[in-house]
UniProtKB/TrEMBL annotation:
This is NACHT, LRR and PYD domains-containing protein 1b allele 3-like. Residues 54-331 form the FIIND domain. SUPFAM superfamilies: DEATH domain. It is found in: Cytoplasm, Cytosol. The keyword Cytoplasm applies. Keywords: Cytoplasm, Immunity, Inflammatory response, Innate immunity. GO terms for biological process: inflammatory response; innate immune response; regulation of apoptotic process. Gene3D superfamilies: Death Domain, Fas. Coiled coil: none annotated.
Length: 439
């Protein structure tokens, strides 16, 4: 998501006023991990053509995650306030402590029903359960661009999946990226849009992954309407391949549903498929797969619309993809060991990958790593609590690795082994190789 300038905010906790600017450091409860104050959302120029207010300040929080029968579950516990999940984009406002959990559901079982009703999905389908308390408001993320057609706000409804069918609920307010409901009662719910025509502009997502095999670079560029459940599906699929994601710019405009696009990479030997139709899919999104011989040149990418207009351009420099895919090239196949890895003591290895660790490690892995480091007495309870309340993911990662580095070789070896268990993909990419200390 794009990011707006952060604002100064004052909170009163235990009768103490806290001034917050750029991030919340270590003042909040450990339950509120990875919090920052910002407004987010993919930005397109057409959004700026109309005034769609979305000015509330939301505390961004990372969810606690678990996997139940292959389904990723998200859980939040929050006191009174306004919050936004960094993974799903879900926002909520509560007047007292609440615990909510949720997961993404597939729209596929309801696709024919939506067609019969002349509606289409307008965002993710979320199955939300309240374990404690009630919400005053919930704001469901949507991908419809309102700037080109503000009247679409009147065509948006909320679909409730109930035991014996479905029902529709009116939306209290539609902002640029969210549909607001007051005093919600939960079942699997998601925003839907009445299809008066296919002339609907939506926000898009582009995700680029690169893999090096011998002297060949394989790129996969995913193109789909912005949807956090689809982003999660892509990340899970690519993680199993050991690919490296490259952060790229977004188009400065929205795209029309059901339009098609062509990708051009001058230095590629093949690109498949020739065109991708821009539609919301129930499965993992479609992608352009391009084969590029490693000629030492920068990779230029250009996306063309139906009428052959350039709608997006990007360049990945040679130095960038050679550096970031270095470890991937050492992996000859899924499940096989890397041909080479870092040498030296565990402390030396950990110190040498510090920058990449901070850049790549995810928030959920950091939280689990903290618990496991405590379990193996690498850190104590006080040290764990001091790190858990850190707002920024990168700052939390720096504190963890620096804390372990100060404790010597044995602690570094334990952390490396634990990282291999918790995120084997990152462990392989970093090419670290611990010895001598079982976990």
């Amino acid at each position: 998501m794009g990011q707006f300038p952060r604002h100064r905010l004052s909170l009163v906790l235990d009768l103490k006023e806290l001034s917050i600017e750029t991030s919340i450091e270590r003042a909040l409860s450990p339950a509120l991990d990875s919090i920052c104050v910002q407004e987010t959302g993919p930005i397109c120029i057409t959004d700026m053509l109309v005034l769609v207010q979305d000015s509330t300040h939301w505390l961004q929080i990372e969810p606690l995650t678990s996997t139940v029968q292959g389904v990723t579950m998200f859980r939040h516990r929050t006191p009174k306030g306004s919050y936004e999940c960094t993974v799903s984009g879900l926002r909520w406002l509560c007047e007292r402590d609440v615990i909510l959990k949720y997961h993404f559901r597939n729209w596929e079982p309801y696709s024919q029903l939506l067609k019969d009703m002349q509606y289409t999905q307008g965002g993710p389908l979320l199955d939300i359960t309240m374990e404690l308390g009630e919400l005053e408001e919930v704001h469901l993320p949507h991908f419809v661009c309102l700037g080109t057609n503000p009247s679409l706000r009147n065509e948006m409804k909320i679909l409730h999946v109930e035991e014996h069918g479905v029902s529709l609920e009116e939306v209290h307010e539609v902002t640029r990226f969210h549909a607001k409901i007051l005093h919600p009662k939960f079942s699997p719910i998601g925003p839907i849009l009445r299809l008066l025509s296919w002339d609907v502009d939506v926000h898009c997502e582009l995700m680029l992954y690169l893999t090096v095999k011998r002297e060949t670079l394989i790129s996969r560029l995913y193109l789909f309407p912005w949807n956090p459940s689809q982003i999660q599906a892509v990340e899970q699929q690519e993680k199993s391949h050991g690919s490296s994601r490259f952060l790229i710019s977004r188009p400065e405009q929205s795209f029309k549903l059901n339009s098609s696009f062509r990708l051009n990479i001058p230095c590629s030997t093949s690109i498949n498929p020739p065109r991708i139709h821009f539609i919301q899919r129930d499965t993992t999104p479609s992608f352009f797969k391009a084969i590029v011989k490693m000629t030492g040149v920068d990779i230029e990418m250009e996306l063309f619309s139906d009428d052959e207009r350039t709608v997006w351009k990007e360049m990945v420099s040679h130095d960038e993809y050679v550096t970031d895919t270095r470890s991937t090239s050492a992996v000859s196949g899924a499940g096989r060991p890397a041909e080479s890895s870092l040498t030296g003591s565990p402390e030396q290895q950990l110190r040498s990958v510090r920058t990449e660790f901070v850049k790549r490690v995810s928030g959920p892995v950091l939280n689990e790593l903290l618990d496991r480091l405590l379990q193996h007495t690498v850190i104590n309870q006080e040290e764990m609590e001091s790190v858990k309340v850190i707002a920024e993911r990168t700052e939390k990662a720096r504190d963890i690795i620096d804390m372990v580095l100060r404790k010597g070789t044995e602690s570094c070896s334990r952390m490396i082994n634990l990282l291999g268990e918790l995120d084997h993909c990152l462990y392989t990419e970093l090419q670290i190789n611990s010895v001598g200390v079982p976990t």
